[in-house]
């Protein structure tokens, strides 16, 4: 096998199995190459990934050593992505009653989901996520995109209990506006207890849905390692969830003038670590 072909095949193997350790011994057998040659190949792959801002490679030494792909996204690409997203969403015909923004079409586009998924994976990957959780329905594609880059399962919280879900845990929670009580349900078979869970959602206004999912996870004795939202609103300024990471921020919506302003989310804050851990369980 030519070296160029081997590098392409190894790269494909790594990119399709993020965060999964691939044995160097297995690679040497598959490609009939010496480990020293593979090390040189991996050095080239790592250099290109880091140069393009797509992530990096981590290697483990020893007889049972291996390599794994850690997805990432450069700050330049992330900023450009959100600014372009803002220009696309900041049109008057997307304004909905109540200060909401129509984003369903955008959250169905693979290119947008891919970048948002990489952003969440880059931010939360080091926290040993076991499961990505979202609530039906618009957040599902975003959660799946994130799960792909973290190489973990996606769990969907239902608005009501379904017979096909089997035994389930249901809780009532107060909406962010505080005006109504809603219900969410999660099958007991969807995830094991004591899991480390990343919550991902498409939109956050007051944070009532995210807070409800955090309370639901207490019934599974699971730990919330982070909350990631695609779009948050500027108002209300104080959310029911104190720690979260947002990709973009809806800073102004004028229903009458049909004016929309979107800015960078707190993902780009220098103090983003404070938005990941801390007292997120409270």
Automatic annotation (TrEMBL):
Keywords: DNA-binding, Transcription, Transcription regulation. Residues 2-71 form the Bacterial purine repressor N-terminal domain. CDD domains: PRTases_typeI (cd06223). It holds the Pfam family Pribosyltran. InterPro entries: PRTase-like (IPR029057), PRTase_dom (IPR000836), Pur/Pyrimidine_PRTase (IPR050118), PuR_N (IPR015265), PurR_Bsub (IPR010078), WH-like_DNA-bd_sf (IPR036388), WH_DNA-bd_sf (IPR036390). Residues 110-256 form the Phosphoribosyltransferase domain. It comes from the Bacteria. The keyword Cell wall biogenesis/degradation does not apply. The keyword Secreted does not apply. Homodimer. Belongs to the purine/pyrimidine phosphoribosyltransferase family. PurR subfamily. This is Pur operon repressor. It comes from Fodinisporobacter ferrooxydans. The lineage of its organism: Bacteria, Bacillati, Bacillota, Bacilli, Bacillales. The gene is purR.
